[in-house]
Amino acid sequence: MRADMHEVTSSFEDILDRVSRSRITLVAGISDTGKSTLVRRLADELPAMVVDSDIGQSDMGPPSVVSLGYRREGRFHMTDGYFVGSVTPARHFLQLMAGVSRMVLQCNRYPLIVNTTGLATGGIGRTLLTEKINAVSPDLIITISTDNELSYLNAFRKCGIEIMNMMPGPDVREKSRAERNLLRGRAFREHFEGASVQSIALQDTGIERSLLNNGAVVSPDTIRSELGFDAVHVEVSGDEAIAVFEDLVPERETIALAFGTKVISAYAASDFENVLVGIIDRDGHLSGLGIVKSIDFDRKVINILTCAKDFSVIQFGTMKLDPETFASAGQFLPSFYRA
Q1: Mind listing the domains of the chain with CATH numbers?
Q2: What is its EC number (predicted)?
Q3: What is the pTM (predicted TM-score) of this model?
Q4: Could you tell me which residues come within 8 angstroms of residue 31 by beta carbon, excluding any fewer than 6 positions away?
Q5: Per-residue pLDDT tens digits for 164-193
């Protein structure tokens, strides 16, 4: 049995009129239902700002980024962004929610339209969309659905949020995984067009989402003489440590006993190659994305392929990107050892 919110569907003209009178509108739907198409049509008709939080298939900024901007003459223009660190919301809820909240707060012109990811059903999807709505506090929610998969959003009517429903357009079709990957790679390639390798001294930049460059450095000579094995780089902060080894990471028992900390993040030096990072400028805004080519721990320099020029903070992502094909090249995850 269908829920009440799906008994009446609205025309584009009705939705356009209502969005024009709303402060914040949020568009929701599962993948390949036409959310982005609707947002483009609305932004073509209205002097609206747009937050695109579809980090896997962004219409505005590069993948992995929550984008803020506007649309003019059939094109989106990004004015700010927040680096989530991955093209999937899974395991990145905090970064995604922080990005959406920050972009909404940055907006100083209305109406504002918020596009969402296609992860909207199942336990994880319901949680993500529900909390995104709680964070954004829209006046209006537009759902695009054919059945009752989004009926759980009816609860927001109880707190004064209007909900309108649209059927997917006739031209909407499901994209294959291969097609999604192709489009994502094309978007990354466009973002990195004209990029060059920049060498940044670690002492001159901050690093977020990693213990790297944020702890007390232990010299390799001390590690070798006191603990009996070689390490390229070691930092300790409280009960945590980060350890980088030339090649193979020692056995769990060895490294746990050696550092005397509760949590150890262990890497091989090559693990840092091709990691996708966000570059933040001195004003705290996203300057662009980068791909780590290497880290020279002896010279304390990180080499990054990027178009960005202002390097105040480097935010580490959790995915790797092939700098030749711009296809996903795996994940960037340490070997975690807990005492």
Answers
A1: 4-187 (3.40.50.300), 196-209+271-334 (2.40.30.330), 216-270 (3.30.300)
A2: 2.7.1.78
A3: 0.92
A4: 118, 119, 174, 175
A5: 999 887 777 778 888 888 999 999 999 999
